[in-house]
Amino acid sequence: MPGITLAFVVAAALAVFVIAAVTVGREAHRLDAVAPRSVYIPEEALEFVAEYLPPETQARLRPDELEQLLTWHMRWLHAKGLQPSNVVDRRQDITTPVVVGDDTVAAYLLGEAERHGVQILDDVDVVNVVDAHLAYFDAIGAVGPRATDPDVAGSGPISS
Length: 160
Fold this sequence. Notes:
mainly alpha
């Protein structure tokens, strides 16, 4: 009788281990196919960008102007398909790298500022804001690696 009990305990332990291993393996495979979650917190982004900016740009931009530039940048990213509306457990399905060029974004932001009557004293400030905002995206893991193709090298990060 003790031999049967021991065999039953070993069989039960082995069954529990197999069930746990299959469940963990399945979830690990599922999570590997899902894009990592990057959470953009507007207040945190504003603080990060404000601290990241060079002192000259910090002196020229008011906090409300900086916040407006960040909002327009996010709208531009959404228009380019880089800010999807539904990202919960979204599969990594980007097949073509999307290159974000600093000059294109800066030109868009300058146009939006002019259209909304926001006085930007120096174009360099907008470029600094874009660089700082992209650094925030990098810090939260929302962008991919820098472009390595010589045709696009230096154009900015590739979205992931």
